[in-house]
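Ticket reopened. Same input as before:
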Amino acid sequence: MFEFFVVCFLGLIFGSFANVCIYRMPRNMSVVKPNSHCISCNAFIKWYDNIPIVSYIFLKGKCRRCKSKISLKYPLVEFSCVILFLSMYYLYGFAFMLIPFCLLVFSLLVTTIIDFEFKIIPDEISFMLMIVGFFTSFFNLNLGETIGQRVLNSFLGFLVGGGSLFIIAVIGKFIFKKDAMGGGDIKVMAGVGTFIGWDKVLFAIFVASLFGSIVGIILIICKKIGRKQEIPFGPYLALSSFLTLFLSPQMIINYLFMLEEKFFLKYLLIDLQNF
Ligand SMILES: [Zn+2]
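Engineering reply: fixed in the latest deploy. New output:
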């Protein structure tokens, strides 16, 4: 029970920090200074008005000074971070690997929302993932049985995660004469690859492309977006990367073959017809 509360507490703290990153990183502001302030009246927020989730409820979602509405996004991000941290606790227990994997899901959460709102993925997040993922790979049981295997798989994850999206970007540019894939997507998946290894990262990209295309096609059919409009790919990559954490390597291999046989050709045809 003690461990559960520690994980919840850290989830709230990091969820609160996630909100700071989401607001400041795309605006090129420092994430450490200055302290939090209201985005309407600029008043600094006192510590007792800055308690994750709790303060939002007590203030009824309004700034104490200017009474302007505080977005529901803030408590939702904090709550999501708690759930994500608890899911990592469920997978890894109260052990060393809980730390890097909490950092991973924290990064995926921040990436999802920043990419959705601003269509960029900050480099700080991607580089942090590469460094943390690679230097904790020795202890990462997902990556292999021996230390040598784990370090190698982490490095291959970096190459395959970044490389496969880079190849898609080059082909996309060649065929469609426009940027189909952002550099941010390439870097963040290189970072994610160091955590989950080459097979899972490949699977994650596969699933993200599938989901992304299906949603994109539905949005085009429903006339919510135009054909030329850019759709952020980061949220799909983040979601599918998160899901792979719950799959065993054997499941991944089975899925990859199944997808290749059943879906890949059909889906490629739909994709080509749409361009
Ligand atoms: Zn205010």
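Residues 121-275 form one domain. The chain has a mean pLDDT of 87. Please confirm and we'll close it.
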